[in-house]
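Bumping my old thread because nobody answered last time. Still need a sequence for this structure:
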């Protein structure tokens, strides 16, 4: 971690939301959590990031999760619900989607999008484990 990315403590108001997000993320096969850029970040095995918490990063007004998505999904989600979804800084140009979590999130939708992000980033072996029902 660099000095430019200190770990921000999770506020009391957001703790239950982050705990629920963490439980969903850690249910995937071989998912693991590490701090990246000062935020809790979830990885598919030893592979790529499939979810990153945005704990009011750089003054953002919302607690949110950033998810890598296949081409076209970002645009569709923002067009369908611009109050809930946004193009996150830094990674938005690569198709990632930001999802607001501190405004009564639809947890079924959060779960569905986490699964899609995991599947999108996981390797062949982990995708097969997910499809066989190991994990969520």
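Sorry it took so long. Here it is:
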């Amino acid at each position: 971690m660099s000095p430019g990315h200190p770990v921000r403590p999770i506020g009391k108001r957001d703790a239950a939301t982050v705990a629920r997000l963490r439980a969903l993320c850690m249910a995937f096969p071989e998912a693991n959590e590490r701090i990246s850029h000062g935020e809790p970040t979830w990885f598919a095995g030893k592979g790529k990031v499939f979810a990153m918490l945005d704990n009011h990063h750089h003054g953002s007004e919302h607690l949110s999760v950033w998810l890598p998505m296949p081409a076209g999904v970002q645009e569709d989600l923002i067009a369908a619900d611009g109050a809930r979804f946004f193009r996150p800084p830094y990674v938005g140009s690569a198709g990632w989607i930001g999802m607001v979590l501190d405004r009564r999130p639809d947890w079924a939708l959060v779960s569905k999008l986490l699964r899609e992000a995991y599947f999108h980033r996981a390797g062949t072996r982990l995708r097969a484990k997910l499809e066989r029902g190991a994990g969520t």
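The chain has one domain: 13-122. Let me know if any region looks off to you.
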